[in-house]
Write the structure tokens for this entry.
Amino acid sequence: MKTRFIVPLVAFVVLAGILAYGVKRAPEKHFIASVMVGKPVPEFTLPSLTEPGKMVTSKELHGKPYIINVWGTWCYACREEHSALMSIQQLGQVPIVGVDWRDTDEDALAWLAQLGNPYSHVAVDKQGRLAIDLGVYGAPETFLIDAKGVIVHKHVGPLSVEIFKRDFEPKLKEQTQEGAS
Amino acid sequence: MRALLLILIAFAAVQTAFAIDPTTIPDPKLQARYQNLTHELRCMQCLNQSIADSPVELAGELRNEVREMIVAGKTDDEIRDYMVARYGEFILFRPRFSARNVWLWFGPAIMLIVGAFIAVRIIRQRAKLVEQDNEPLEEEAAER
């Protein structure tokens, strides 16, 4: 008759274990994991904000790791993030390509003039096509692209230097090591 | 009474005017597919609304993508694939069958079978007990 008690006990322990695992993992699940990580960056040809008449293309960016930062002047968190982008740019480890999402050129240029321009290129995505191709659902979102043009990391929400050092730097180092060997 | 009716009709008209998505595709078949698809794709910003019900800009852009793909002759599955490739399975309100969620699909059926099995066993055991109860006790038998 002992099994009568053991079976529910085991069932309870298993269930409690599953729930504990779920609760522990909950903070990671706060942001939806991007399916884009591990995939090649979508090809794009978009007008440049800072160099009128020129285009920013994914092709010219390939060959070296770079960061894509999706932002807009309408985005409050982007303003919060901007000083971090300036600091990251000053670290000089990786160029940052801005994607100005659903914005007007005047607003965007005024923003960069006022707050500084951390971007090596700024692509203008008025219709949000590239944003959709990148699976962006809210600005700011930041992608790390490796030398082969594959998305190796995605960060949702404002970036900080700490987050950059924690999540982006190790992946960048892997890149340079792979390149050297 | 007539005034009330008129007011009600006026309200009904206002409602349609306020619909979030005024898109119409001339072909009614395509329009039906469009309605269907936009109702089963999640608005990634608002999470618990479909892109058909959401006033958010991104939802509008995704509706636009859906409309363009339908008009271009893409199948429903191709459109779903397009969305899943960018936003993940999460964008589908109707999850697809996959190895990861197989237990979700079959879990209830398995539970039902296990439950039925246990129920049958308990009922059979109880039935036996009733039979034993009905047998006259030895003392009683002796008295007779």
Remarks:
- The beta strands of chain A are 45-47, 55-57, 66-71, 96-101, 121-125, 141-145, 151-156.
- Helices of chain A lie at 3-25, 58-61, 76-91, 105-115, 129-133, 161-180.
- DSSP finds six helices and seven strands in chain A.
- The longest helix of chain A spans residues 3-25.
